[in-house]
Sequence to fold (375 residues):
Amino acid sequence: MIRHDVADAPPKACVVEIGKVAELYVLPSPRRSAEPLKRRRPHPDRKYGAFISIRRKSLFWRVADFERSNCTLCGAPDASIVYRNCRDRRHWLPGLFDVVRCDGCGLVRTDPRPSAASIAEYYPPSYVSFTAELSRTSVWYAVLRSVVRLPYVLRYGSADPWFRPSNRRNRLLDIGSGTGVYLEAMANLGWSVRGVEPDAVAAARAAERLRVDPHRIFVGRVEEAEFPPGAFDLVTMGHALEHLHDPRRALEKLHSWLRPGGVLRLWLPDFESLESRVFRQLWFGLDVPRHLYHFGRNTIRAMLEIAGFRVERVVPQYQANTLSGSVRHTVDALIGREVEFRESMPLYYAFLPLATMLLGVGIGGALDVTARRSA
Ligand SMILES: [Zn+2]
Fold:
């Protein structure tokens, strides 16, 4: 059911009622909303405007499936609002989402959220994991990189997420493997790699990149994947857990796929970080509605322990782009700009010294977690 001209909403706003569980607010930009759809033809000089308008219209009809959820960690239905009416600041797809904190255990989640059947609408082809490629770098860049990473490396060891396998124990599974950039780096270090990736195009690209049988990349959600018990020595999950509808169930599956003593390495945004508290709804790591859960040190530890893991190490992840990304979101909000997010390299380099200095003293926007399946 569609109602027009809702009180207190911007002109031309529509409210779609979806069953009894949730409401989806579609807010076309006021500048374009007065135009009839047929006049919104793609214009060769305007890369985003026309595309977004048409896509919003199609999404308007297709995303009719939002849901409310109970906490995946403790099952409690009650939660308190942290941020109200957050928007998709990366792709500007429609919908307003609250970020709430579970009254039972403190785990933060996005609510309402797109259902598992409709979440793919929020991953357009330009989504970063589908487009990631390794860039060629010069010697000078490599030197600069080593220098800025030094404070972090001295305190936490390597800043890179890749490392060599120990003898013969080299079976790796990467969850959310995207176009396979990470798998390729690990394969080159001697790992026997497999992946899980919900996007079929990205998965095909990964198989091509790795020159392996496409079956080595499972196409689908991790909740649907099946592997024999104890099949892996290492499972990695880089910025994927927060995208899942049931991360607890996923962690329980990963636990069973690891051999006893096998290692799980996770990277994920840190909702309790200083960066998150400073930028609030404009924090780059919030990324609603793709991020369905928002973990902090305590909540990720609690969930891993419930899934059967022993947590060995929780440190800030070396990731210098969330600070500049948050600054970019803030600038966009101040000037009212609603264009698809593109990483700005000048902004990245402007904030690199500050970001790396903060990482050196343990302040970052993401976590690097190591956990082990008990022997
Ligand atoms: Zn809870």
About this structure: The chain is about 30% helix and 25% strand. Residues 71, 73-74, 76, 102, 104-105, 107 surround zinc ion (CB under 6 Å). Residues 239 and 316 are 13 Å apart (CA to CA).
